[in-house]
Structures are given as structure tokens and as C-alpha cells.
Design a protein that fits this description.
Layout: E1 3-14, E2 17-28, E3 32-36, H1 43-51, E4 58-63, E5 66-67, H2 73-79, E6 81-84, H3 96-104, H4 113-123, H5 139-151, E7 157-161, H6 169-184, E8 188-192, H7 196-202, E9 205-210, E10 213-219, H8 220-225, H9 227-234
Parallel strand pairs: 3-8, 3-9, 6-7, 7-8
Antiparallel strand pairs: 1-2, 1-4, 4-5, 9-10
Helix pairs in contact: 3-4, 3-5, 6-7
The protein binds adenosine-5'-diphosphate and magnesium ion.
Length: 241
């Protein structure tokens, strides 16, 4: 399998705190790769190193074979990364369809806009709400809308940081279905997650971070069977920071 994304020994320190230490991982083209770990494990910090929120203290990031370690986020987006951060940022006062329209307008021809909006509305299960201000959608629906907006860029790699945060179990499950569908249509995914049931639903490959380091890596079945992983999730080390 071709490697779409590679992180080589990336580290990030904040003052004296090593939030991410020497993490190496690669995401294969076509995979759904999940990064899991207890709160404070360094997941979001690692995610920010990949998308370019800040450069790593040391190490390198390659995307499609190109070294992007020092590139700004917008340059990485141009190369085909699309990012959904943890907090939803839809245009709340604008109708749902208008949100998709804004996201799509520079990526599809004028004649195709309406059709593409309809296709995304259907995929996101938001057709019935297309005229509603996005701020009136449920929290889960706003997250889906934002995933749809991120998909408007037709990315090679979609990066999601805790896409199910604050969702009901039903919404979480439907988010998993959406991610599986987008993957089937050809998008590689890197998903930072906390919820094990959700990871089990979607993941092909899993990397476990703990105290900023790679704690385990393998197929979803390997990770489920790994007692040490269960321990950091259930045991005393799973603390809030
Ligand atoms: P996770 O997403 O796995 O919960 P984070 O990457 O958010 O973990 O945080 C990892 C560690 O780095 C935590 O101890 C957190 O307090 C610290 N940290 C994260 N971002 C910053 C920052 N901007 N400045 C200082 N410390 C930070
Ligand atoms: Mg986080």
C-alpha cells in the first residue's frame, strides 16, 4: 500500500512538557487510521503537527511523499488535506445549503453546484433541513455539516479530531456510517478518537498514544486484544488533565 502520510519521530514540547515524544506513524492510502489514547495523551497535539497548526520541535511530516514539515496549514490543504477541528465552526446564521454552497463554490463548476449540494445533503441526512439556519441543527447534525464542508474540498486525506465529541450513541453510530461511506468513495481518513466503540466500528489501523508516546500500534483486532491497552483505558492512568 502506498503511504499517503508519514510522521517521522515527531516531538512537540510546551516549555518543559513533552506533549508528543518521538512518534512515528504512517497512514496508507485508502485506510481509516485511528489515533486513540486517554485524555492528555497528546492526540490533539499530534493532530496539530500533522495539519500544521505549529511545527514540531523535532521530526518530519511527509504528505504524498513531499516534506511538509514547515508548511502552513493552507499549503497542506492545497495538497489535499482537509481538516475538521474539535469545535464545530459552521456559519450558524446561514441556511444549511448555503454553508455547503460556500464550501463548494471554489471547487466545483457553477453548473454542478446545486447537484453537488443535493448529493452532500443526502449523504449527510440533512436534505429535510436544507433551508434551516445551521445554528438550529442539533449538535450532531452541525458536526455532520462540517464534515460535509470539509469534504467539499475533495480531499485525499480527511483529518477529524474527536468527531463524535458530545454526541449521543445513536449520533455516534451514524457518524461512523458516514465515515465508512466517505472512505468507500475513496477518501483516506485520520481520526483522533476517545470512544473505543466508535473506533471498533470504523478503524482499519490503530495507533495508541499514552503520555505523548506510541504505546501500541496494529490492526483494530490486535488493539482490542491487547490487555495493556485495556488497562490504560480502564485503569488508574486514565485521568483528566
Ligand atoms: P489529548 O488530545 O490526547 O487529550 P493534548 O494533545 O490536548 O491531549 O494534550 C497533551 C498535553 O499537552 C496535555 O498535558 C496538555 O495540557 C498539553 N498541551 C496541549 N496543548 C498545549 C499548549 N498549547 N500549551 C501548553 N500545553 C499544552
Ligand atoms: Mg484532544
Amino acid at each position: 500500500m502506498a503511504k499517503l502520510l508519514e510522521a517521522h519521530s515527531v516531538s512537540k514540547s510546551f516549555g518543559g512538557l513533552a506533549a508528543v515524544s518521538d512518534v512515528t506513524l504512517s497512514v496508507d492510502q485508502g485506510d481509516i487510521h485511528c489515533i486513540i489514547g486517554p485524555n492528555g495523551a497528546g492526540k490533539s497535539t499530534f493532530f496539530k503537527l500533522i495539519v500544521g497548526t505549529y511545527p514540531p520541535t523535532s521530526g518530519r511530516v511527509l504528505f504524498g511523499g513531499a516534506d511538509v514539515t514547515k508548511e502552513m496549514p493552507f499549503s497542506r490543504v492545497k495538497r489535499g488535506m482537509s481538516i475538521k477541528m474539535q469545535k464545530p465552526s459552521v456559519f450558524k446564521e446561514l441556511p444549511v445549503r448555503q454553508n455547503l454552497h460556500i464550501a463548494l463554490q471554489h471547487h466545483v463548476g457553477y453548473g454542478e453546484l446545486k447537484g453537488e449540494e443535493d448529493r452532500l445533503l443526502e449523504l449527510l441526512d440533512l436534505s429535510a433541513s436544507h433551508g434551516k439556519p445551521a445554528g438550529e441543527l442539533s449538535h450532531g447534525q452541525q458536526q455532520w455539516l462540517e464534515i460535509g464542508m470539509a469534504m467539499a474540498l475533495r480531499p485525499r486525506l480527511l483529518l477529524l479530531d474527536e468527531p463524535t465529541a458530545g454526541m449521543s450513541p445513536e449520533e455516534t453510530y451514524r457518524t461512523g456510517e458516514l465515515i465508512l461511506q466517505l472512505n468507500k468513495e475513496g477518501t483516506t481518513m485520520l481520526v483522533v478518537e476517545h470512544d473505543m466503540a466508535f473506533v471498533r466500528q470504523i478503524a482499519v489501523a490503530v495507533t495508541v498514544l499514552h503520555f505523548g508516546r506510541t504505546f501500541a500500534h496494529g490492526s483494530i483486532n490486535d488493539i482490542i486484544a491487547d490487555e495493556r491497552v485495556a488497562e490504560i483505558y480502564l485503569g488508574k492512568t486514565n485521568h483528566e488533565r
